[in-house]
Every structure is written in structure tokens, then in C-alpha cells.
Write a structure and sequence with these properties.
alpha+beta, six-stranded antiparallel sheet, 36 strands, 37% strand
Amino acid sequence: MFINHFSRKGIAAALIMMLSLSYAQPVLAESAAEAAVTTASAESVTTATKSSEQKTVVITAGYVNLRSGAGTSFAKVGKAKKGNRFAYLSSKKGKDGKVWYQIQTSSSQTAWVISSYSKLESKHSQSKEDSSEKQYVVITGSSVNLRTGAGTSFSRIGKAKKGEKFVYLGKDKGKDGKTWYKIQYSSSKTAWVLGSLAKMDATPSKQYVVITVGETDLRTGAGSSYAKAGTAKKGAKFVYLSSKRAKDNKVWHQVQYTSSKKAWVLSTCAKQVNNDTSFSPYLTRTITIKKGSRSVYTEPDAKSKRAGKVSGGAKYTVTEWADDGKNTWYAFRLKGSQVWIIRTDVTVSDYFKNIPAKDFSKGGVPMIYLSPSKQPHNDYAVGSTNEQKEMYRVASELKKILEKEYVCKVYTAPTDLFLSLDGRALDAYRRHADIYLAIHSNSDGSRSKKSYGAIGYYQPKNPQSKKLAENMVKEMGKIVPHKSTVTRNTIDGMKAFDGTGYSDVRDPAYYGITGILAEVEYHDNADSARWIINNPKKIARALANSLETTFRLRRK
């Protein structure tokens, strides 16, 4: 797993690249229907504005690709099936003359769908709760039934406990005159909850982009060839939405430019920061200055103004961290002002609070977030395949097992490399995940060595995380063809990288999510690599068993 990993992880530790994804899974094949659609008639460009009339795009075809731009030449970012509904943002006629709708696929990502396989609906807003700023429903009752429609006469689809949050989709009145909220119950299912047993809530944690140069242009797309959407001065801050690499290989950040417009800014002209004080209720990060005096700066940039020096051995609490494209920077308070220091000048210590144990045997619907490896360059010893491809196969089988046999909700992180490991943890938090399972295969760094066995990296001060790691190793031990040669099969996941730990262990803990990094077997041995390739269902079953045992998941 960890060949060529440290450099990527160092960047990921600060660059919280969030949510370049939708609630649907990535599309693996082109929709034949989409390629053959006829031209629809509409205005060349129409933009949604804030008003009492809200518009929704409803999918009318069986399965339709969602794209990053208005045309089939743009990358596929997801798919939607007939009946799926999305908030409408704008319309645009592509180069082929066909009309495309821009839609809001999640709280932070947009996509485009062809109008020939969707329709535009309008609905008059009845209250402030229908505003786009109100995106979540929080359960206020102790144990609340979720139903297939707006009324108690509809079938029960599940239960929700007090405090659970769901993405808000809309509302309606039942035959009894009571208000019901429509929610995203799982990645593929919606449900309805009685309004008197729930409340509307605002979007949780946000990430921001801050302009770092004197003045820079904002563009309508990810590239300097796109039209200018506006300009921003140094220090201007915008809500971060996503990131994209342009054709010239430069990275651009998409930001919320105004209340109704989005724009793109070149990453070298901006920095990403986390400015949410509730970001880490379970973690305090401190830094210790290395020997000798070290310079601090007013910005996370060695070319910015120096703010003085700090002495070796001094300790500070981190208030923010950022990335300049090459190095990680930490911010802390010094004499009443915030200053920045480069990561290489400090050592890092993380102090975790205990994360409460979760038991779903008596109720509740756990949200399980699967984070398969995002390392396509970690080649297997055989099979012309790699770690990312094989672990996504395992995750796919695991999702099928969990959703078919257990009372739970499951989401699998997309392959998009711009969704960093930190970003995946934040994504899990936004989806109100209870459990975070990172799925990897291992490598000992040399094809001449013969290492076998599973390893579970757990969160410190979290007995349930350690138990999950132990159960995972035990279940894998029942099915692997070789006896483990690993000295320790369960390891504190914060012992690596100078105490910063593995992102898939550390970052979910930031948000109070119990999780582990599961190394299912070594892929740099020909025999074990071949076994992984041939047994994704067996591996998935072992992981499902470990989740059931640890969290006492209820069977359907």
C-alpha cells in the first residue's frame, strides 16, 4: 500500500479537497441513449435566481450520465436513475446544439444532465425552510419511523434516532394536514419523516479558499481560457466547492463566488483553509519547534512577511493548517496574532478524546463510509492490475452484502483523486457517518520479501476501533491461504509519519467517527496477489462479519 505514499499524504494532511462527487456512484460506461439524443429547444443560457419559485430537474430515462460540463465530451462524474430529483441551477446549449441542465448533486457539487432525458419542474416556495441554505433535517424524536411517503398510511422504510441528520430534499403535507420532510435516507433511497419529530438545520462544517496574491481573476471554468467571472483581492475568502486539474496540468479550485454564482481560481493564487471552530471536537493538535530558532510568517508562504522567530522546544496549539502546493503549514497564536510555520520546522503531536462506542443492536441505522485505496500506481505482482482497482472491487461486494443483509446505510468514496483522504473524512462527516472503513492491500516495499497477513490500523483512545481491527484480522485469518508472518497484526495508526499518523485513521477521528485502515493482505507476492484478485467476495464477507460483530449490526 505505502509505496510512494508519503508525498501524497503530506499534501493531503492540509489540502482538504472535498466532495468532488455526487450521491450516485461513478459511471463506468457511456450511456448509449445519451449519445443518440435529439436536440431540445430552450434558451442558450438560463440561470436560476433566488426567488419564491424553485426549480427541480427530474430524471426521466432509466440511467443517465451526469457530466462535469454541458456536453458528452465532458468527464462523467456520476449517474442518475429515473425519478431522481435535483435542484436546478442553470441551462446551457452545448456545441452540438443540445440543451443541458446544471444541477446540484450534493451540498457541494454540481453536474450537468442532458434535457432530453430529464424535465424541469417548478414549485412555489412555501416557507423559509425551503431555502437552499437549509439543507439538513435533524431528528428530534427518540425513535422515529421513516416512511415511503408523506403520511402514516405509507410503508415504514426504517427508523431514525434522536440527533441523526439527513440531507433535506423537500417537504409536503399529508392527507391529515401535517407537514412531512423528504430526506436522503441512503445513497439510493429517499424517505419521509413527520415534521413535528424533526427540525431543519444548516449545513455543517465548511472549507474555504483564501486569495493569497494582490489581485487575481476568477474564471467561469477550470482554465485561463474560460471567460472572466470577476476578480478577487488578497485576503478575500470564499466557500470551497471542489478542485479540478486543467488540460495544462494546473489545479483550479471552484468556489462560491456570490450567493448564486460559482467561479474558479488558480490554486497557486489561493490557499485552502479550515475555518470551522467545531472542526475537531475530538482532537487537539500541538506542534513543538525543532532545535534552534525558526522563522514564522504572516501567511502560509515563505515569500510572505516574516512575523518573527520562535525558539526550539516551544509548544503551540494549531489553529489552522494550509498547503502552498509543495509544503504543509501550521498556524498558531503568537503574542495575540496568528502566525504560520512550515511543517518541516516542527514535530507534531495529536491528543484525542475518547470517541463514544456505538451499538446498533437495539435500534438506529448506522451510516457506513467505505474508503477504498486511491492508489492506482501500486501495481500487483500479477494480473496487470493495481491496489485501487482491486480494493474498489472489494468495496463494491461489501456494499452489496451490507445493504442486502443488514439494517444500515452505505456510501463508497469515489475514485476522484482530488478528494483527498482528509476530504474523504470530511465527506463522511457531512454524510453523518458512524463507521469509517478504509480498505487497502499491503506491500512490504520489496518483491524479494515474502510477507503475508492482514493488519488493522486503529485509532488511539478508541477501544471500539481497536476491537474492529482485531475482528477484521481474525476474520481475514479464517480465509487467507497463508499463515500470517506479520509480527503485529493490530497497530496504533498514529505511530507513523512523525506522529501525524495515517489519514484514514486520524482524520475520521477528528469528527468522532470510529474507523480503521484495513490491510487485507500483501499484493507484492504473486500468490497472495492472485488470491486477492480471485476472492473479492470472500474478503468482503470477512469485512462484513467484522463490522457486524463490532457494532452489533442488525440483520434484515
